[in-house]
Specification:
Length: about 775
């Protein structure tokens, strides 16, 4: 639309005339305190003007009792209060009005008795906004009538220099002002008045019309966008400025470099920084601070230090914020020496480190193991009047505890509690672990009770301390700690009770072990076959009668079905009610081999050791026979037709190996004599350890087996002739020769098997022959 400038000026003249009349003749009504904005409907035929509250939800009408009276100098002014009524006629507020002054005479309005300045930029921006919104006609005049200020010709002249179309703008410039200067001036006014949409719309219009925008206008728009929290629009404006080849001034650099740096566009910010210096502009302190901070946080420490040194070269005194930023950046990158140098430089400059900086420098040095420096800083922090945080205490305490320094750790703990701070769970855990490693049971008990008083659950922590004693083999301390736990109402779990029981068994503390086992059983924990077998292994190695009684009592306390089997195995058939072979088969049928195959192998090895030592060879042969039938040792016996027969006993205990050799040779004899099958050779694979034991046993009956490195071997024919001897028949059918008790006792000492250390909660690996008895 092309505006008629004569009509616009005529409307402006009428508008100014109306407000002049109002200002000379009347005093305006002031809005109530709760009203957001009060405008006036002015008309030549009606005085005084009617105030209206511009609010979306309601209207406030006024009732004026007396409008005005004549003064002594002939002037007219309001003398009575104004009553503000709601739509129902109720009184909302009473008060005096705003008295306007004559346009062009003063640049302020009176609010009560106080003069308030009226900013020209706001007036111009408001008039431009109305003209651009309502274009022309009665609506425009109505909206101009509603303005809450009295515009003068300066306001009108400046406002009419910018409208939607540039052609229309040209028709408004009757004062000879250039289009370029006027457009830029108006945009700057709008930007200064924070009219974001209008100013940017005007900017786009004059850009589309090919009008050049100057640097100052760009700076005003950039500042406006930044103040409105729209940095990306500010960057777009800067890019538009570059495309237009508009030369940057010092203000542009001061605006763009810090904001580019804060937004992470460090390369662009640094490029502008270099350009600024190249053009002879002196960077401000804000530029240096923002560049150093942003580059430090981005890990560009060399660039940050370079900018910092340049700042010093310009003679700028670094503010404390730049020291804080640099120290934090170097600490987080692990360059503590440089951080300390900057720390000292900051102190020499007269700046006092803040609480956060003390905390950062202390914790970083503590975590890096530089405890002396950390403690020195910690003492300085306390002298400076700062109370360290629980995290600072915890960091120092935990690092001292981890390094085994008990005295500093306890001093820190006492200082922390005396300061009224509550140590964290990790702090208590680390400190108690240290005390446990130092075997300070009484101190650890005191700290644990304090931890409990703080409201923490201490069961797990106390159990961890107990495990420390168990793993270190300090069984006496472990038992002492367990008694303390019981007296303090602190419980532990069955796993730790079992671990302590096994430690007591290993140390020979059988009297202390039995109550632990009873506690374990009474807490509904299940004694498995491995645990029972480990106790039986102790009985096999036992050399003292009093210990044997304790061990038998412990075996009975397990209440495991294997103990009933052991007792039944040593009774006669009249008590068992069935032959021994059937009794053994019945027990092994009750084993779940999918879950307990390893445990069953372990039990067979230890049980055969025990039976051999007790001279129960026939019972032992029954156990081996049933174990082989249940495929516990499926690869022990190999029949390779007429070529070779072999027995592999490398994974058996000494007792199991002896019984396996006797039983298997008996099977070989039956096959050879009854069926007439004679292999070329027979091998007994013993391994290096069991080779001597097996060879000594067979040599007592003049066997033809030759001893090699890990195997006893003989030809099938020689073994056939050997089987025909009466002594061999007696040996294979009955029992080991009479000196077996002495022999087995020596073997138990030379080749310990089923030792207590061969125990685990998981199924054991096959036992090697050298650890078989």
């Amino acid at each position: 639309m092309i505006y008629n400038h004569r009509q616009l000026l005529s409307s402006a003249t009428k508008l100014t005339h109306k407000f002049s009349l109002l200002s000379r003749a009347h005093s305006f009504v002031s809005p109530p305190p709760f009203a957001p904005k009060l405008t006036f409907l002015a008309s030549p035929s009606r005085f005084p003007p009617t105030p209206r509250l511009c609010n979306a939800s309601n209207l406030v009408w006024t009732r004026i009792t007396r409008c005005y009276c004549s003064g002594s100098d002939g002037s007219k002014e309001w003398t009575e209060e104004i009553e503000y009524l709601d739509e129902s006629g109720g009184v909302i507020f009473k008060g005096k009005g705003v008295r306007s002054v004559e346009p062009g005479v003063d640049d302020h309005v009176m609010v009560g008795e106080v003069k308030k300045p009226f900013v020209n930029a706001l007036a111009v921006a408001k008039i431009v906004e109305v003209v651009k919104r309502w274009k022309w006609g009665p609506e425009l005049e109505t909206q101009l009538d509603k303005l809450q200020f009295v515009p003068n010709m300066t306001h009108v002249g400046q406002a009419f220099k910018v409208v939607a179309d540039v052609d229309a703008s040209l028709s408004l410039f009757s004062d000879g002002v250039s289009l370029y200067a006027a457009c830029n001036r108006v945009i700057r006014y709008l930007a200064k008045a924070e009219k974001l949409e209008v100013s940017f719309c005007c900017f786009k219009k004059i850009m589309d019309a090919g009008c050049r925008v100057d640097t100052e206008t760009y700076n005003s728009l950039i500042t406006l966008f930044l103040n409105k929290g729209l940095p990306y629009k500010a960057f777009e404006m800067y890019e538009s400025m570059e495309k237009a080849n508009c030369l940057l001034d010092g203000s542009t650099y001061e605006l763009m470099i810090p904001n580019l740096a804060k937004s992470g566009r460090l390369d662009a910010a640094f490029k502008l920084f270099q350009e600024m210096k190249g053009r002879g502009f002196r960077p401000g302190l804000n530029i240096f601070v923002l560049l150093v901070d942003s580059m430090g946080k981005a890990g560009r420490l060399d660039s940050a230090m370079k900018v910092y040194m340049e700042m010093r070269g310009y003679g700028c005194k670094p503010p404390p914020t730049i020291y804080v930023s640099l120290i934090e950046s170097y600490v987080k990158s692990g360059k503590l020496e440089t951080a300390l140098r900057l720390w000292d430089e900051m102190r020499m400059a007269g700046f006092r480190p803040n609480f956060g900086l003390y905390t950062l420098i202390i914790e970083s040095h503590a975590k890096s193991g530089k405890l002396d420096i950390a403690m020195s800083m910690f003492l300085d922090m306390e002298k400076a009047g700062f109370l360290p945080t629980p995290s600072t205490y915890a960091c120092l305490l935990e690092m001292h505890a981890a390094s085994g320094q008990i005295d500093p750790a306890m001093k820190l703990y006492n200082s922390m509690t005396n300061a009224g701070l509550r140590p964290g769970l990790s702090t208590y855990t680390v400190l108690l672990t240290l005390l446990a490693n130092k075997k300070l049971v009484d101190v650890a008990a005191k700290i644990l009770l304090e931890m409990k008083a703080m409201g923490y659950s201490v069961d797990v922590t106390a159990s961890d301390v107990l495990m420390v004693y168990i793993k270190e083999g300090s069984v006496d301390l472990a038992l002492r700690w367990l008694r303390f736990m019981g007296s303090s109402g602190i419980r532990t779990n069955n796993f730790i009770i079992r671990q302590l029981f096994e430690s007591c068994m290993k140390s020979g503390l059988y009297e202390s072990a039995k109550p632990l086992l009873e506690t374990y059983v009474n807490s509904a924990a299940k004694v498995d076959l491995i645990l029972y077998t480990s106790i039986l292994a102790h009985l096999v190695r036992c050399q003292e009668e009093k210990h044997e009684r304790h061990l038998m009592s412990i075996l009975s306390a397990t209440k495991h079905k294997a103990h009933s089997f052991m007792c039944g195995l040593f009774t006669g058939p009249e008590h068992r009610g069935q032959p021994v072979l059937s009794f053994v088969r019945e027990f092994f049928q009750g084993i779940d081999y999918e879950l307990e195959e390893g445990a069953a192998k372990y039990f067979v090895n230890v049980l055969l050791n025990y039976l051999v030592l007790m001279g129960q060879i026939n019972r032992a042969r029954c156990v081996w026979k049933v174990a082989y039938e249940n495929k516990l040792f499926p690869k022990a016996i190999v029949f390779d037709q007429h070529i070779a027969w072999s027995l592999d006993v490398r994974n058996l205990s000494v007792g199991a190996a002896l019984i396996a050799v006797v039983h298997t040779l008996h099977r070989f004899r039956k096959r050879m004599l009854y069926y007439g099958i004679v292999p070329r050779r027979i091998k007994l694979v013993t391994g290096a350890t069991l080779k001597i034991v097996i060879a000594q046993m067979l040599s007592s009956v003049e066997s033809p087996f030759e001893v090699s490195k890990v195997v006893l071997r003989a030809s099938g024919d020689s073994v056939m002739e050997w089987f025909k001897k009466p002594i061999v028949q007696q040996f294979l059918l009955n029992e080991i020769p009479s000196r077996s008790d002495i022999l087995m006792h020596k073997l138990n000492i030379l080749f310990p098997s089923s030792a207590p250390e061969v125990r685990s909660l998981s199924p054991p690996k096959p036992l090697i022959a050298g650890r078989a008895m």
